[in-house]
């Protein structure tokens, strides 16, 4: 780069000219905005092209780097700050006033009256969702823009389209031609490359500018000049790892590892297909099998395809380019990230095998395995070795006699005595001791399974429990059956239907209740609801008269599968009471996890939140982070109902941080669902629909199989609001088939609500809403009934029928307040005020006297413009406490924003509050 010519481009003249023509067409009148997309991979010159376009633009040009993607509105703040010194304050005011629409309007006002402006946004899909939604609303806004001509040059990596600008022209950056690559090589080396080396570099780099420059940088001077022969490729794996390191490093750990698995599987033979031909292509089944053997979660496969890092066609995965595959092999190699493959002989000899494993761990750097909980009944050194020592003492004299005789034979044959001793040792202990040793090995495997189920990858627990069941099958059939049920539970948490079915393959001699439970779950997993109901109903009935926590848990799980959430909550409550009475603290997190989920299914969100909070404390106290992840996911869903956006983000982030690397598909699905519901409540319907779409997708790359259908109504609502009507209709039809199974009491009512949202005519909409309310009478979920009432009232108000809308909205408001769903209650109050209902108008300033003294102090400071952090520092409180009080102020005054609060206090006069100055928090 020089001060005169700017960034140097090689072979991009046509693309630069196309960008200039699209941004500044000669016939374009003023008052329009042009959006042009640029795509290019790592090292292909995407950022340089943006910098050169900004330099050549005949007007103001601003290049904004991607901000922190997980911070809401960080992108809008960065852009406003670049446009004006006071842009950050304007961005904050617009966001507080009107959210997404306010940002779009403020951006239009900021650009009006300026000269030609070019805004260059690199890596736009990595920006935060709130800012992207606001820019999309700005681009879609009709009408004139004044006299200004605005150009948006938006860059993204291949495979990451810009949803809000799908109609915008697209400029792709191809590989460099031979002449351009030669010019780049000449300037990068200063002409010092030997002719043969230069041609070889051009061949191996294949026109990739970043790869070519990095390869030159790494070559020794003698190799570059051709005086020293190179060792191997000039474009080696280190070059590709450096060029693609940023792309691979931005991926989640599981995504990077899975990409490495796909790279290793490319070119592997498919036993059911043709011989391998394309080294950049492989079959999905091969990838899944290899990932399972390496214990790499596959939940991120859809994300890799959506990001363009993999192409999926006809059950085949392909890399878009060979360089990415080679970089992925070393950047995402599962064997270099702490994953190893179980070998069949790993459990062949428990005592010697454990030592061998620990030695391998120390050599390969894997570290120690989770330490099992102390349990004297399963440790081999306390149950096997004393018997073995007694047998050795009993057989010591015969053994000496065998050694003496074999020594005489060895002398005659010329063999050393130690060979004969080793041959005698291979006879091993007697059968009784071998049986006891096998039982101890099985129990040790159960202990390992519990350790992995509590704090490791759940498919590790699944394998350990299955191995234990095989070892214990003939010796301890009851323990073997328990191990298989535990393996099924681990596979259920991972969302692996095939592994669940494999674990349920019980021995024919299993007791009646266990057989019924296994058959019922197998029928449910294979979508045979009648068979599942017939087999699981007796399990629930038997559990109702038993007091063993293990059996109560099993009966409660059967009730959940049948959709009987009332019985499930009752059975898990009894299991919790028994576990507490017996002081079985290690079992409490698991029971509370099931109980919280049952309360969640029943729509009792306050009770679900209380149970999950208790379960979270129990999980932390007993060292069970996997259970804690599930509790965090439940708390995120509860917070999405109460409208606490910060709590949703916090709990969902913690659930995903544990659930993704440990393969907890159930917790991950719940956390993603919670984030989507929060986005939907915040007006980001498009973002919510995009987040929910993978969760409701069928197949192994969709959401958890037991939660997929439960999330469909939320997806339909978000999809309809964001214009994805076709997808919403398809999901609704599948939901209708599932509703007919009768395993969810609220499904018929929610199905009718979905059909009302999709109806094309007013009469049809009204009829379906009426059907939904009628079916809610038998559903038993007051919260979902309130959501239907709210949707119906909102539809009536927007059809200019305010008198009819007030009744449903009032009923919805009362139910939301009773359920502590403050987020939904605020929306219902706003809709009710919009109908002009008595009692729903803005409160009088005298209502401020109803606030507590602490709330009055906080209200005064907030009305003066203080942030939560500033209020907390002033009153010696925590920001979370301030946020809690602020929500209480909004609820008591029936307002929704700081703007309304400021207006209310301003209208109350100079001394509206019983203000006594700052004091200690209380």
UniProtKB/TrEMBL annotation:
Would I find Transcription regulation among this entry's keywords?
Answer: no
Q: Which UniProt keywords apply?
A: DNA-binding
Pfam families, per database record: GerE
Q: Where is the composition biased (Low complexity)?
A: 331-341
Q: Which SUPFAM superfamilies match?
A: C-terminal effector domain of the bipartite response regulators
Provide the HTH luxR-type domain boundaries: 844-909
For bias type Basic and acidic residues, the affected ranges are 342-404, 416-426
Where, if anywhere, are coiled coils annotated?
none
The record's annotation in CDD domains points to: LuxR_C_like
Q: Which SMART domains match?
A: HTH_LUXR
Instruction: List every stretch annotated Disordered.
Output: 330-440
What is the recorded name of this protein? LuxR C-terminal-related transcriptional regulator
This protein's species is: Streptomyces omiyaensis
């Amino acid at each position: 780069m020089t001060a005169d010519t700017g960034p140097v481009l090689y072979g991009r003249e046509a693309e630069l000219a196309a960008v200039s023509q699209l941004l500044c067409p000669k016939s374009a009148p003023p008052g329009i905005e042009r959006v042009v997309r640029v795509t290019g991979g790592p090292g292909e010159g995407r950022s340089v092209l943006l910098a050169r376009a900004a330099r050549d633009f005949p007007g103001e040009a601003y290049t904004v780097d991607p901000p922190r993607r997980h911070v809401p509105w960080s992108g809008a703040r960065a852009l406003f700050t670049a446009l004006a010194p006071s842009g950050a304050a304007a961005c904050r005011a617009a966001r507080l006033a009107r959210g997404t629409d306010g940002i779009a309007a403020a951006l239009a006002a900021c650009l009006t009256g300026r000269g030609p402006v070019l805004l260059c946004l690199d890596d736009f899909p990595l920006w935060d969702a709130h800012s992207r939604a606001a820019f999309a609303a700005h681009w879609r806004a009709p009408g004139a823009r004044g006299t200004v001509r605005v150009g948006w040059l938006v860059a993204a990596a291949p495979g990451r389209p810009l949803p809000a600008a799908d109609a915008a022209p697209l400029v792709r950056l191809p590989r460099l031609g031979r002449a351009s690559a030669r010019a780049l090589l000449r300037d990068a080396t200063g002409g010092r490359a030997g002719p043969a080396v230069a041609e070889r570099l051009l061949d191996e780099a294949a026109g990739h500018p970043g790869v070519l420059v990095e390869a030159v940088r790494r070559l020794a001077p003698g190799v570059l000049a051709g005086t020293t022969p190179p060792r191997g490729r000039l474009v080696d794996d280190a070059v590709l790892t450096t060029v693609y390191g940023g792309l691979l490093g931005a991926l989640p750990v599981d995504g990077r590892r899975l990409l490495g698995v796909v790279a290793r599987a490319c070119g592997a033979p498919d036993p059911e297909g043709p011989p391998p031909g394309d080294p950049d292509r492989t079959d999905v089944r091969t990838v899944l099998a290899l990932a399972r053997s390496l214990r790499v979660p596959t939940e991120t496969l859809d994300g890799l395809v959506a990001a363009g890092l993999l192409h999926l066609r006809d059950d085949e995965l392909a890399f878009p380019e060979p360089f990415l595959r080679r970089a992925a092999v070393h950047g995402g190699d599962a064997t270099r990230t702490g994953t190893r493959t179980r070998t069949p002989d790993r459990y062949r000899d428990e005592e010697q095998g454990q030592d061998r494993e620990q030695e391998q761990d120390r050599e390969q750097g894997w570290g120690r395995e989770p330490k099992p909980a102390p349990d004297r009944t399963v440790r081999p050194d306390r149950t096997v070795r004393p018997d073995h020592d007694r047998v050795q003492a009993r057989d010591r004299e015969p053994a000496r006699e065998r050694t003496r005789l074999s020594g005489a034979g060895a002398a005659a044959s010329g063999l050393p005595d130690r060979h004969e001793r080793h041959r005698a040792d291979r006879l091993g202990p007697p059968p009784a001791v071998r049986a006891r040793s096998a039982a101890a090995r099985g129990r040790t495997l159960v202990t390992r399974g519990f350790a992995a189920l509590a704090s490791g990858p759940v498919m590790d627990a699944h394998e350990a429990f299955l191995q234990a069941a095989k070892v214990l099958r003939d010796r301890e059939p009851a323990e073997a059956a328990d191990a298989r049920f535990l393996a099924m539970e681990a596979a259920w948490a991972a969302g692996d239907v095939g592994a669940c079915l494999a674990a349920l393959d019980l021995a024919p001699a299993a007791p009646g209740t266990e057989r019924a439970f296994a058959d019922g779950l197998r029928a449910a997993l294979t979508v045979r609801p009648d068979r599942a109901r017939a087999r699981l109903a007796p399990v629930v009935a038997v559990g109702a008269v038993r007091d063993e926590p293990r059996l109560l848990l099993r009966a409660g799980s059967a009730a959940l599968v049948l959709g009987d959430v009332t019985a499930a909550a009752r059975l898990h409550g009894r299991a919790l009471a028994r576990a507490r009475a017996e002081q079985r603290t290690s079992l409490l997190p698991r029971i509370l996890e099931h109980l919280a989920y049952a309360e969640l299914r029943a729509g009792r969100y306050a009770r679900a939140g209380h149970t999950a909070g208790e379960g979270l404390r129990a999980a932390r106290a007993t060292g069970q982070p996997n259970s804690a992840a599930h509790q965090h996911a439940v708390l995120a869903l509860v917070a999405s109902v109460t409208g606490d956006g910060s709590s949703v983000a916090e709990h969902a982030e913690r659930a995903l941080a544990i659930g993704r690397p440990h393969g907890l598909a159930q917790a991950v699905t719940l956390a993603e669902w919670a984030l989507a519901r929060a986005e939907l409540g915040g007006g980001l319907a498009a973002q919510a629909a995009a987040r929910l779409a993978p969760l409701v997708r069928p197949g192994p790359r969709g959401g958890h199989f037991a939660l997929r259908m439960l999330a469909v109504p939320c997806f339909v609502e978000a999809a309809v609001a964001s214009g994805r009507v076709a997808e919403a209709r398809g999901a609704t039809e599948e939901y209708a088939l599932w509703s007919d199974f009768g395993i969810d009491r609220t499904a018929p009512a929610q199905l009718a609500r979905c059909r009302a949202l999709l109806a094309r005519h007013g009469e049809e909409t009204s009829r379906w809403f009426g059907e939904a309310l009628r079916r809610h009478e038998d559903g038993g979920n007051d919260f979902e009934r309130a959501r239907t009432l709210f949707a119906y009232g909102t539809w009536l108000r927007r059809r200019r029928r305010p008198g009819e809308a007030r009744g449903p909205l009032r009923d919805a408001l009362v139910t939301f307040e009773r359920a502590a769903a403050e987020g939904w209650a605020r929306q219902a109050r706003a809709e009710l005020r919009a109908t002009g209902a008595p009692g729903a108008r803005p409160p009088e300033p005298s209502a401020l006297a109803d606030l507590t003294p602490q709330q009055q102090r906080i209200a005064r400071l907030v009305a003066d413009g203080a942030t939560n952090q500033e209020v907390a520092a002033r009153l010696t409180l925590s920001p979370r406490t301030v946020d809690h009080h602020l929500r209480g102020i909004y609820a008591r005054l029936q307002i929704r924003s700081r703007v309304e609060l400021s207006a209310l206090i301003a209208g109350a006069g100079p001394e509206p509050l019983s203000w006594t100055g700052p004091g200690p928090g209380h």
